Amino acid sequence: VGAYPHLADLNFPAVVYVHGGGFVSGDKRPYSPWLELAAAEGFAWFSVNYRLAPKYLAAHQVDDVDAAVRFIQAHANGFKVDAKRVFLMGASSGGYVVSAVGVQHTPADGLRGVISFFGEYDIETRTKPTTECVRDGKVFHFETPQDCLADRWKAFFGAPDAVSPASRAIF
C-alpha cells in the first residue's frame, strides 16, 4: 500500500486508488494525478496493487483490493483517516475492480462511494459473437462471428474461449 496521509491530527476521508493495466499489468506507482486533486481537497490517499492475471483471476484481484480497504480501516488512527469515510477510485481495469469491491459493501461499513474512470461493464455484449467490434479503441472486422473480449479480459476471467458454453457461465 502506498500511502499519503495528512500530517495534521485529524481524521481525513480517504481515497483508495486502484491502477489500470488490463488486469495483466500495472503498479500502484506512478501515482495518478487524480490523487493530487484529492489531496488538495482534504483527502488522504492510498494506492494499492493487486495480483495480476492470468496467474490470478478476477476473484483474487477483488479480494486483494477488499483486503487493502479493510487494512486501511483497521489502521485508520495510525493513518489519520476516518474509517467510515473511505472511497474507492480506479481507472480502466482498476475501475472495474473497485466497482466489484464496492458492491460487496454497505455504507454502514465505511465505504462511502466508488469512482470508476472508464471501467468496462458491458461484458455480456462483448461475449456475444459478432463480425465487428472495438477493442482498445480499434475497430476489428471478422469474417466469422467472434467474441469481442480482449485477451486480457479472458485472462482476468480465466476463460481462454469466451464464446464456449463453459466460459459463458463465468459471465
Describe this structure in words.
Helix 2 (58-74) crosses helix 4. This protein has 7 helices and 7 strands. It has 171 residues and is of the alpha/beta class. Strand 4, helix 4 and strand 5 (111-117) form a beta-alpha-beta unit. Helix content is 32%, strand content 28%. The strands form 2 sheets. A 5-stranded mixed sheet has the order 1-3-2-4-5, with helices on both faces.
Key terms:
171 residues, alpha/beta, two-stranded antiparallel sheet, elongated
Secondary structural class: alpha/beta
Oligomeric state: single chain
Can you list the strand order of the major beta sheet?
1-3-2-4-5
> Termini separation (Å)?
30 Å
Strand segment tally? 7
Number of helices: 7
As a percent range, the share of strand residues is 25-35%
Helix fraction by DSSP (H/I, runs of at least 4): 25-40%
Largest sheet: 5 strands, mixed
Average predicted confidence as pLDDT:
83
Low-confidence stretches at least 5 residues in length (pLDDT < 50)?
A: 166-171
Element order, helices and strands?
A: EEHEHHEHEHEEHH
Q: What does the radius of gyration come to?
A: 18 Å
Q: Given the C-alpha coordinates, what overall shape results?
A: elongated
